[in-house]
């Protein structure tokens, strides 16, 4: 608007006549334009490309090169034009600034080249319009950081003799590659962290029996040895912490930093234990404090840059994670309430209150499917929930790691806004960013599909195990573990199935970390299409449906003995003949429960994905 | 109104030929070209609405509130009372104000003051105009004006203009009293 206002000056002057008769004193005469030339066209030749504009357009901004007499230095008498040996692309933006009053920043342009051009033409970057200002600032900041990093890595190779002892020590701590001593210290602390963590783990392993008493964990059997080891580790950690504290340039800031808090939490339990060993009532609390020793594993984040990046990633998408938690909570509350009121009519319902149905809802939504707490009448509802869970699984698990990890990539095509890939399908402006987004999106769909596929795989394993040894008393029903007299010691078949279950779950979870790792290491993502994955998934679901059309029995399931009694499986009324005692099974996989293959008509909507 | 605005943005008005405008107004071809370029820059659709008027005026008088004066001005420009000013109307008015005779200018100013276009200026209309002008000047005038100044100003004006003391000023009274006041006329020449 500013550019055009000058053109309206005659109008304003004319309108001033309106108040003339009212004015007490006469208005001064309008200033006559001295040296008023007729408006002429100027030709600006920038590296061969000719731009033409009116002289008055350029004179709108007299404190720039083009608006002042400085451009006369570039006037070419022979061709009667102004010649500039500069970039014509950027000049286009500069000239548009004169025409429209708004300076735009083209996204494809290199930030430092753009800055150079602006400096040449005498234009301050602060007047970049709002539409492009954020982009400009982000790019500039990114560039500055990159330059700073380069400078740092250069400086590290130079020898700087003028550092004090304290500063050298700090540099040694922060960057172990500066000197051999620092490297030794780095590895020693790393080693002791590992030793400490392994000690904590081994302490609890049962170590064989001492004659005359029951089986003891290793920690109690060789308590002196473990105590010595623990003391040594804590000594090392304390010394390290104190040295870091001494060397820190700003001690207050160091104390407040996350790493130092982790250090303190790691060594505090030991000292508190030393002080409090004789007090009987707080020994329980003392035992709890030992749990904090596991925080020593976080000390590894000083040794692993990847871990630090993960930490920053989580921190930077804390709001998204928070929202995820909030929406899950909302969904849990809604479904728990629905389940409670739906089951309220049944007298033997286990949903005694809404909090009691929270457990069922959480377990179903996270696709664990314990089925130890099951509704009687509305058995369709959990299966519909499972359908929605399949969808939520796809969306939640798939999209979460990618935007967060991608926030910290340093790919050159990355848009500078840290939350640029909030969800797959966010709006991108540059072509390279679109390509990157679509690759990530494709990959995330693919891996999420694989993840869901794994779910089917596990569940079909559950189906197949049922089919392989049918219950002799009820051949039309799936095999019930409670019908066999030995409970669930159903032989190697069951254990294998459970093992496969867990294995496939693990394998597929690891798939999700692959893209994160890819992004971390900045490998080019493979652009795989998600379509084959989806169709395979749909086919599998269809296979499920065809194979088990009669499966509508909700009472099948196992019970984890560690789950409290309130959630134990009720005796099944539909089939009868099953024992009342809930089946138990031991083994390392006792925490894992087999799943029932979902079936029924509700899979139909799932195909639509 | 939204509908009007939409209509205006969709309708692109193109002025009559350059020769015709040159004949109708007192501007030369080059001047008309310059004026049109500025006009088209601000209003690509070819018509100005009241909002644009107010914005332009606000740019010239940043210290005060020029909206009321711009409002009256707009209605003086908009001779057909359609709510939008085409380039021809704009240029015609400018031609009068910048290149017209004293008589024409005074007549135009009378038209501006006569808010309801009934041919007479009464004290309320005058009060509105003067208040609008004072608002436009803003608070940072030198010397600082008091609250009462507009009213006093209007009283003085009416004393001077209203010859037969009937409370209204007609066009003839206006022309007569303005032409005797040679101080003001300096500007009009």
UniProtKB/TrEMBL annotation, chain A:
Name assigned to this protein: BTB domain-containing protein
Keyword annotations: Ion channel, Ion transport, Membrane, Potassium, Potassium channel, Potassium transport, Signal, Transmembrane, Transmembrane helix, Transport, Voltage-gated channel
GO biological process terms on file: action potential; potassium ion export across plasma membrane; protein homooligomerization
Subcellular location(s) per record: Membrane
GO cellular component: dendritic spine; neuronal cell body; postsynaptic membrane; voltage-gated potassium channel complex
MF terms in GO: A-type (transient outward) potassium channel activity
Signal peptide as annotated in the record: 1-16
Alphabetized CDD domains for the sequence: BTB_POZ_KCND3
Chain positions covered by the region annotation Disordered: 402-424
Biased composition (Polar residues): 402-416
Automatic annotation (TrEMBL), chain B:
Position of the signal peptide: none
Domain EF-hand: 65-100, 101-136, 149-184
Name the record gives this protein: EF-hand domain-containing protein
Subcellular location as annotated: Cell membrane
Lineage: Eukaryota, Metazoa, Chordata, Craniata, Vertebrata
SMART domains for the chain: EFh
Domain of life: Eukaryota
CDD domains xrefs: EFh
Molecular function GO terms recorded: calcium ion binding; potassium channel activity; potassium channel regulator activity; transmembrane transporter binding
Transmembrane segments: none
GO process terms (BP): regulation of potassium ion transmembrane transport
Organism from which the protein derives: Muntiacus reevesi
InterPro entries: EF-hand-dom_pair, EF_Hand_1_Ca_BS, EF_hand_dom, Recoverin
Family from the record: Belongs to the recoverin family.
Pfam family, one: EF-hand_7
GO CC entries: voltage-gated potassium channel complex
Entry keyword set: Calcium, Cell membrane, Ion channel, Ion transport, Membrane, Metal-binding, Potassium, Potassium channel, Potassium transport, Repeat, Transport, Voltage-gated channel
Gene3D superfamilies: EF-hand
Chief place of localization: membrane
């Amino acid at each position: 608007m500013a550019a055009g206002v000058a053109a309206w000056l005659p109008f304003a002057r004319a309108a001033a006549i309106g108040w003339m008769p009212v004015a007490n004193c006469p208005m001064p005469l309008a200033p006559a334009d001295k040296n008023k030339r007729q408006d002429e066209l100027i030709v600006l030749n920038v590296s061969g490309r000719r731009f033409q504009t009116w002289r008055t357009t350029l004179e709108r901004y007299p404190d720039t090169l083009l608006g002042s007499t400085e451009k006369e230095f570039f006037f070419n008498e022979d061709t009667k034009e102004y010649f500039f040996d500069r970039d014509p692309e950027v000049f286009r933006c500069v000239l548009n600034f004169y025409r429209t009053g708004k300076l735009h920043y083209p996204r494809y342009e290199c930030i430092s080249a753009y800055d150079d051009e602006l400096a040449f033409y005498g234009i301050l970057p602060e007047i970049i319009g709002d539409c492009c200002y954020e982009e400009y600032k982000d790019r500039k900041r990114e560039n500055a950081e990159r330059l700073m990093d380069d400078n740092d890595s250069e400086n590290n190779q130079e020898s700087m003799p003028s550092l004090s002892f304290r500063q050298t020590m700090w540099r040694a701590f922060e960057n172990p590659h500066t000197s051999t001593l620092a490297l030794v210290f780095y590895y020693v602390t790393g080693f002791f962290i590992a030793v400490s963590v392994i000690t904590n783990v081994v302490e609890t392993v049962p170590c064989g029996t001492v004659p005359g008493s029951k089986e003891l964990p290793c920690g109690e059997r060789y308590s002196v040895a473990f105590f010595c080891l623990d003391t040594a580790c804590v000594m090392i950690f304390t010394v390290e912490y104190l040295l870091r504290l001494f060397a820190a340039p700003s001690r207050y800031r160091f104390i407040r930093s996350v790493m130092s808090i982790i250090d303190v939490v790691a060594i505090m339990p030991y000292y508190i234990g030393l002080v409090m060993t004789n007090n009987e009532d707080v020994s329980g609390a003392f035992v709890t404090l030992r749990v904090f020793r596991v925080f020593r594993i976080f000390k590894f984040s000083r040794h692993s840059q990847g871990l630090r990046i993960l930490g920053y990633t989580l921190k930077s998408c804390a709001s998204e994670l928070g929202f995820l938690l909030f929406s899950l909570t909302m969904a849990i509350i809604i479904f728990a309430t629905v389940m409670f009121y739906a089951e309220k009519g049944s007298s033997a319902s286990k949903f005694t209150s809404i909090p009691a149905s929270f457990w069922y809802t959480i377990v179903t939504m996270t696709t664990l499917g314990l089925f130890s707490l099951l509704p009687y009448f509305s058995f369709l509802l959990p299966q519909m929930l499972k359908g929605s869970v399949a969808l939520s699984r796809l969306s939640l698990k798939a999209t979460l790691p990618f935007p967060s990890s991608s926030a910290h990539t340093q790919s050159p095509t990355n848009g500078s806004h840290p939350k640029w890939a909030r969800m797959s399908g966010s709006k991108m402006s540059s072509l390279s960013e679109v390509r990157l987004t679509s690759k990530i999106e494709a990959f995330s769909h693919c891996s999420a599909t694989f993840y869901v596929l794994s779910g089917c795989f596990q569940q079909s394993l559950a189906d197949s195990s049922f089919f392989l040894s049918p219950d002799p008393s009820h051949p039309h029903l799936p095999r019930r573990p409670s019908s066999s007299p030995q409970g669930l010691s159903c032989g190697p078949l069951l254990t294998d199935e459970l093992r496969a279950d867990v294995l496939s779950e693990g394998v597929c979870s690891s798939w999700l970390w692959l893209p994160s790792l890819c992004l971390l290491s900045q490998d080019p993502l493979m652009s795989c299409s998600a379509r084959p994955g989806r169709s395979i998934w749909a086919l599998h679901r269809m296979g499920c449906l065809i194979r088990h059309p009669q499966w509508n029995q909700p009472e099948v399931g196992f019970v984890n003995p560690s789950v409290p009694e309130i959630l134990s499986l009720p005796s099944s009324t539909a089939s009868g003949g099953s024992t009342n005692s809930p089946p138990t099974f031991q083994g390392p996989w006792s925490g894992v429960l087999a799943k029932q293959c979902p079936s029924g008509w509700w899979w139909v909507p799932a195909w639509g994905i | 109104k939204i509908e009007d605005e939409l209509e205006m943005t969709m309708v692109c008005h193109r002025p009559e030929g350059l020769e015709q405008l040159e004949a109708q107004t007192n501007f030369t071809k080059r001047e008309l070209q310059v004026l049109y370029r500025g006009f088209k820059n601000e209003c690509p659709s070819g018509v100005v609405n009241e909002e644009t008027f107010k914005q332009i005026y606000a740019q010239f008088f940043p210290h005060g509130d020029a909206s009321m004066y711009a409002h009256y001005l707009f209605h003086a420009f908009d001779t057909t009372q359609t709510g939008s000013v085409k380039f021809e109307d704009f240029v015609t008015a400018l031609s009068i104000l910048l290149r017209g005779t004293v008589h024409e200018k005074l007549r135009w100013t009378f038209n501006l003051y006569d808010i309801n276009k009934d041919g007479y200026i009464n004290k309320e209309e005058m009060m509105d105009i003067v208040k609008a002008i004072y608002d436009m000047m803003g608070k940072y005038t030198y010397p600082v004006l008091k609250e009462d100044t507009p009213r006093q100003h209007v009283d003085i004006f009416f004393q001077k203009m209203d010859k037969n003391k009937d409370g209204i000023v007609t066009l003839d009274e206006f022309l007569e009293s303005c032409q005797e006041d040679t101080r003001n006329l300096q500007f009009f020449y």
